[in-house]
Description:
2 copies of one chain form a homodimer.
Chain A: H1 13-32, E1 36-37, E2 43-45, H2 46-53, E3 63-65, E4 71-74, H3 79-88, E5 97-106, E6 118-127, H4 132-148, E7 156-162, H5 163-172, H6 179-188, H7 194-203, H8 208-217, H9 226-232, H10 235-253, E8 260-262, E9 276-282, E10 292-296, H11 300-303, E11 311-314, H12 318-327, E12 338-345, H13 349-361, E13 366-368, H14 375-384, E14 387-394, H15 395-399, E15 402-407, E16 413-417
Parallel strand pairs in A: 1-5, 7-8, 12-13, 12-14
Antiparallel strand pairs in A: 2-4, 3-4, 5-6, 6-11, 7-9, 9-10, 10-11, 14-15, 15-16
Helix pairs in contact in A: 1-4, 4-10, 5-6, 5-10, 6-7, 9-10
Amino acid sequence: MYDGLKGFRDFYHAEMGPRREVIDTLEATAKRYGFREVGTPAMERTEMYVDKSGEEIVEELYAFEDKGGREVSLTPELTPTVARMVVAKQQELSKPIKWVSTRPFWRYEQVQQGRFREFYQTNVDVFGSAEPEADAEVLAFAADALTNLGLTGEAFEFRVSHRDILGGLLAAFDADVDSREAIRAVDKSAKIDDEEYHDLLIEAGLSADQATEFDGLLDTDAANLDELIEFAGTDRVEAAVTNLQRVLDVAADFGVREYCTLSLETARGLDYYTGVVFECFDATGEVSRSVFGGGRYDDLIEGFGGQPTPAVGVAPGLAPLSLLLQRADVWPDEGFTTDYYVLQVGDTRDVAAGITRELRERGHIVETDLSGRSFGGQLDYADSINAETVVIVGEQDLEDDAVTVKDMASGDQQQVPLAEFPGDRDRPTFEDF
Amino acid sequence: MYDGLKGFRDFYHAEMGPRREVIDTLEATAKRYGFREVGTPAMERTEMYVDKSGEEIVEELYAFEDKGGREVSLTPELTPTVARMVVAKQQELSKPIKWVSTRPFWRYEQVQQGRFREFYQTNVDVFGSAEPEADAEVLAFAADALTNLGLTGEAFEFRVSHRDILGGLLAAFDADVDSREAIRAVDKSAKIDDEEYHDLLIEAGLSADQATEFDGLLDTDAANLDELIEFAGTDRVEAAVTNLQRVLDVAADFGVREYCTLSLETARGLDYYTGVVFECFDATGEVSRSVFGGGRYDDLIEGFGGQPTPAVGVAPGLAPLSLLLQRADVWPDEGFTTDYYVLQVGDTRDVAAGITRELRERGHIVETDLSGRSFGGQLDYADSINAETVVIVGEQDLEDDAVTVKDMASGDQQQVPLAEFPGDRDRPTFEDF
């Protein structure tokens, strides 16, 4: 007997059913927005990740040398891969490019609640639009996906921020600030205590007083964003605030403003974000980590050797999403259904197989005996697969050119002429006879 | 600019559309048979493959040591993984277990036409039935999947054989035969010349005359299978022939016998097959390699430490399947469609966003401007995404509480009251007004 690997999961069919339902909802929502599916490789050259995130990223990667001597890694996220793909065909692809895909990714990290070494995400990205409409569309997709999954605004909120407000405010202080480090500190602030947070800001170059002032500025709410422009007095902060306000305005037009809360403490850990960023949280606070996040990353394509191409995206992960849905009690049911079980009694396989085939051709889920089981054994099996209707094909009935149709919920059954089952009916049930 | 890895493919949306359509058809067909989806990991312990196939298999694997010192491999096929999963929960799972999944696999091998290092398969398996009904159901699924994809019996054939007929015939010779080697020679026979094939049989232990006689026996057709029983005179060959005949009989009941040809030269390369095996071929002979194959592997679960559990499965690969579908000219179209483009003229975003939202809520594929484009630019974009209907939301029309609905195929357009678009209509088009 072999064990699976730690952090890698087997999804048996009872668990896979709900997962598939959630993935289908995410993808159907994206499809309505005009996002088109792409298929992407599980492996890339390691240098792509090192160039983007530094040598230390290799510690988190499944990185190895392949048999041809190439340094390769299992993809830990989709963004670098789709950025590579955009660069490779940037002349041919008409803008905006709107892509969606759902697939696993891999990171060698500590396994904990809702976090695995193999994990699944649905990635949605828009390339080629710098307009706030693109940011808002990504927010609207994410909100629609969650409401389509059965969540209400009481269950989740999007904490929305803007990278350049943070960067611009930091630059406005009379200090030599490493804003990358300071933004990382902001990203961590909810998870660490205040003192540690302040120390990190001071390490990044702010004085103690400045750190306190900066922290205070981050409490500004949506109605008072203009105060930040006033504080900084720079075009940079003004542009960032205006952009964020416009994104929230378009989100209102798309009907999803109600799910968005301004939260300047939301910074997103990854370095490549450049504009609006957002994270989805459990509004009840029971799931403390961010469920998923997204944002604008206008510099990545150029950094990958392409023409400057603005981009914005979001990537709901299935594991954190399942925690959120379970808390809200809208995770789909594990029960699976079967439309028909065709039960064979005696030597009736040819007729039973024909009925099975006809019902399958009409698109129904149909099973029949594969194991030479008794009448009772077959009925138990039909019950175990939640068959709605059992069609009993018995030798005696067949002498009368008939079969027996049994409704499994009520237990009622009825003899029906063979010619009428299924006959012209698209979905014959006990009720029809 | 980064390159993707050799043998790994990027599927842009135009190529992914047809692939998704094919995968959806395979999965929908499996679903109607009552196969339930499972989700499986991309990585397993390398020892699982070595135990099953010998140390030399490592040469074909993406095998490496992970950061925790485990010897791991990317999964080159699904069968060992599902066998492991069956063993892990064999008490809980009611039999037959019927599983389906579609996902990538990885092998470090030479890249050639229709063969890649990352490749996709739909795996369908039945565990827990030794009856010919299970083999026939797998054959019927495969045939239905191909006809649902648009192929006719002129385009493909299943060459069906039985491992134990080969093994039993070999054992019936008065010689010390390594039947594993001999069956491998049979598997290769179509790809090598006769002399080489005979030499391999002789190396496996047959005399030259026996090799010729054995080769002659393999030409036996379905009507004369009893001659093989007579030749061997063993229960083993009799049981195998009877089993094969019964599988073909049930296949007839399921309506798929017409796609099956008896072909004892079909042996399937993998060692773990034990009973009926089959391979799908392009009936025109233009695609010379087997498109995909399957068969019965009754010993694997026990070999993995489980209770004896008979099993049978098939795994259509997307790449060889696409060759077959392209030859037969039934590979799906690359064109994608968009139901509506909502065009904004002037400051009409709020109304346009509302219409966009209402149409999406009805399940349609709808795009609107994300790039601040001009009227002409938006119309060109709508054309590039094959929008069927364009809804023009202009400031002047809005003064009359109206929008303009344009049919992109005819170019016809018409002013329509805003209250009626979409109004109560589920799918309003130009025709409705």
